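[audit] Reproducing an earlier prediction to check determinism. Same input, same settings, fresh worker. If the tokens differ from the archived copy the diff job will pick it up downstream; this log only records the rerun itself.
[audit] input (171 residues):
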Amino acid sequence: MSIIQKFNSSATYNGADCGSYFWSQSLTDLEIVLPVPASVVSSKHVQVLVQIDSINVLINVNNTWKPLLSGKLTHTVDDNSSIWTLDPSKLVQVSIEKSQQAWWSALLISEKPIKLGNIDRSVKLEDLPLDTQTIVHNMTTQQYLKLQQSSPLSLSSSSSSSSSSSSSSSS
């Protein structure tokens, strides 16, 4: 299985396969996967520059810097909250925090947009703001307590019926 096939499904979750790279997104973050040649074995062979509205990923092949990805982003990002990793001879992965919670229809303005109606809009509880997490927790607890109160069998009624049946058998 090639590196492209391996990363195609997870690397395009709510994003796209753009030929030379893949991107995916959650409501708050972006992930970009860029396959690299076998000669890219060290972080010294990679330069990643994420700015508030653009990205540039370069690799050094035979002492020449070549762009893997370069362009203007469709929305802004938190340029201080990006990290990248190199899986030597395989890929560069760039993780970026969006500056605002939103679903992006494209990573770069030069890309063909994806259909936002087709993406999975579910959000992890930990990705929600703290006050919203508290509201969800309180609602869940209230629902649980309500279900416990309306349950036809309670622990006290089942224990009293077992003691009354044992007393009637001893007579």
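[audit] rerun output stored. Observation attached for the diff report: Residues 1-5, 157-171 have pLDDT under 50 and may be disordered.
[audit] end
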